Amino acid sequence: MIKKNNIWLALEIGNSRLHWALFFGAKLDSTWNTDYLPESVIQQLAQCQTLNDLPPEILPPIHKQANQEKYTSPSSPCPLPPAPCPLPLAIASVVPSQTALWQTYPNVRVITLEQIPLKGLYPTLGIDRALALWGAGKTWGFPMLVIDAGTALTFTAADADECLVGGAILPGLGLQFTSLGQKTGQLPLIETQAIASLPPRFALNTTEAIQSGVIYTILAGIKDFIENWWQLFPMGKIAIKGGDRTILLNYLQALYPAIASRLTVEPNLIFWGIEKIVRIP
What we know:
By secondary structure, the protein is of the alpha/beta class. The chain has helices spanning about 40-45, 60-70, 95-100, 125-140, 175-185, 205-230, 245-255, 255-260, 270-280, and strands at about 5-15, 20-25, 25-35, 90-95, 110, 145-150, 150-160, 165-170, 235-240, 265.
């Protein structure tokens, strides 16, 4: 367990990148992403004496900037405070080979599905979904539905007794566009970031027809899941995370403002789930 005032790192190992968070006790200081790192960097991290000795590959960008400026600018972040090293490191991973690599770190705790206190979890539930649900529920209360608008669009819910209700998985916004662009002979590849506003529902060109088909069916699906959730749990809360959270929320605000107004947006739910498990109050 991580003690009350410890400075510590959380690491979510994803399928393509590492997702980092620096905590000062229960306070989330900063988050950032890196590529997978070689074992030499892990060894360097294990040998650092202060936070400012963190390998540049791992140093949070806001503090990296501060180090480069040597704190001469009034607007620069403060130096990282003293902390015992090697820093406590809590890991949640969906990549076994990467997990094994980071287990060589001397002050590490690897979180498994069995350690998450939610009731009724099934063995193949993704630890990222379980941690996000636990973090959201313990922060804002249960019943809780978490929508993750990432590569996959997922719904994961638990009731007032902190028992898993269940969920659903479907291809996310970008994945649907990519699938049409790469798996068909004539359809263009659509970039999600290029769609600033809702397309016409009944389009008169191929690009907007793809945008309409994907966006409006995804929004209708989200609306249907949310409305069903509120039928089951009228006071149930909803949190949304993931890379497409902002664009989908903007679309929902345009089409279904009453629904959008009740959503809590929080990109760091997995880190809050980790914090609720590893830190001593």
